[in-house]
Amino acid sequence: MLAEPAASSRDAAETAALAKGGRTSFFGYVLRLAARFPFLFIAGRLYGAEALGRFAYATMVVELAAMLATLGLKRGLAEDLARRPDDQAGAVADALLVALLAGLLGAAVLVALPELLFPAARLHPLDRWFALIIPFIALADIALAGLAFHHDVAATVRARSIIEPWMLSIAALALAFTAWKGDGMLIAYVLSMLAAFLAALAPAVRRFGWPRGWRFDAARLWRLVRANGPLAGADLAEWGARRLDIFILGRFASAELIGIYYVAQQIASLPQRLKSSFDPILGPVLTRNLAAGNLVKVAAHVRQISFWVASVQLAAVLSLGIVGQAAMGLFGPAFASGVVVLAVLLAVELLAAQAAVAEGALIYVARGRNLTWSVIGLVVQAGLTLWLVPLDGPLGGAVGAAAALAAAALLQSVAKSRLLAARLGHPVSGWRWSLLLAALPAFGAGMLVLRTPEPIQLTIGFFAILGTFGFVMWRFGFKGADRLLLGRGLKQLEADAAGLPLAPILPGHQAS
After folding, report:
1. Cβ within 8 Å of residue 254, ≥6 positions away
2. Per residue in 423-453, is it b (16+ CB within 10 Å) or e — as a string?
3. In the predicted model, what is the mean pLDDT of residues 355-371?
């Protein structure tokens, strides 16, 4: 009889931990977005769409190289730390070393071939050396992943949501009035990433300390790289799904069009980031239940997070999509034409929600199959993008690139949720009819908002749509544990859940 209340308390603690981690990290992303909008405004008004497009393409390639340099350890480091509880400093040192070596290799390639960063553009004097920032980005990601293992989400918020974006905005503004304006945004980006690197490394050193008795062991490092190969592949596929559109568009379209597409993508990325805000705490909770063989609880947690993500995403899609033209016009008259692209990209985020959450569990129970579906989705997206982008149409194929991404997102959402449900033996979908119930009055409010001037749309109107959806959802859709996402109660449960260990995965749950 005593076991049931204990299990119930533990389940509530896990749900509270998921809610708290999601709130903290999502709040951090809101802060990051608040700082990112000034940068987009500065870039659009002071530098122009063409310069912004050049910046967007170069930073996309650099971030791809940095993501590859992490070798899947942004998510895989947690397992290595769990296997080496008495030598966590050594585990972090191993991860940092392999990321450093891979980052230096990627930087060397791009320094030798700068045209990969700046296609069809005249190189500026500093452009060749821009790729040297790659190792610093990769090392910061590894350090933050190690801190996330100990539920230190605040470090990520501080580095990625406050220091990095505000340094970018302030430096870009200052450099716009200097002789370095031609490379102003790129220099600002380098400064922001260096600042984020220092902000990530300092708390990691305090948390783990310097490794004692550590020595270089090529065989151990190779085993680490090999074990995280599937995760690295999944990271690449996920990155490709989010950046392949700009990569292909950059080969067919002007820098100005890429700049417009980039701004639409940045606005639309708000809903997508909600899923990643659960990652630091989702892994420990899922692995703990998988190790105990409690597949019912794993499915329940996936359903809960899927519902939370879908709720916030749908609210963002409605509020941002309806006032999209006014929002895009903030960054300059040329950007207002991208409203259709923004609408399609917002739909993408809604379609991709279930796949994104399902993957958080699939990387533990079906890594190989998850990677296979990621690659299939990437191939489908690439084929559709290559077909649609060169066609004559609105915005020179930009809508085609977004539509191809939407089709691939829908395919992966269906496939991955079905795969996870089959592996767990329980439903994992977070869809509820209350989402539609809340969307209808919010859409009606949006139609009234569109009758007002643009300044009203972006202020009162935006919050009226968001508030209408939120009120109906809170009143009729959120029940019981659902309200933990925005609730302030259950402090003791949250404190208990903060200490949840990351249990090692049982061998049977690593099958592909």
Report:
1. 50, 53, 396
2. bbebebbbebebbeebbeebeebbeebeebe
3. 80
Reply yes or no on whether the pLDDT at 481 is more than 80: no
Evaluate whether residue 5 is within a structural domain: no
Listed residues 201, 227, 253: the one ending a domain: 227
| Same structural domain, 221 and 235 | no
Domain match, 198 and 316 both: no
Domain assignment present for 11: no
Alpha carbon distance 497, 389 (integer Å): 48
Q: Are 351 and 406 in contact (CB under 8 A)?
A: yes
| 301 and 200 inside one domain | no
Q: What pLDDT does residue 494 have?
A: 40
Q: What percent of the chain has pLDDT over 70?
A: 81
Share the mean pLDDT of the chain. Answer: 79
- DSSP annotation of 150 reads T
Q: What is the mean pLDDT of residues 471-479?
A: 84
Question: What is the mean predicted confidence (pLDDT) over 218-242?
Answer: 77
C-alpha to C-alpha distances, 51 to 39, 233, 342, 412, nearest whole angstrom: 13, 32, 20, 34
| Predicted TM-score of the model (pTM) | 0.70
The token pair at 160 is: 């990625």
Q: Residue 20: which residues within 8 A CB-CB, separation 6 or more?
A: 281, 494, 497, 498
Q: By residue range, what is the domain housing residue 348?
A: 230-505
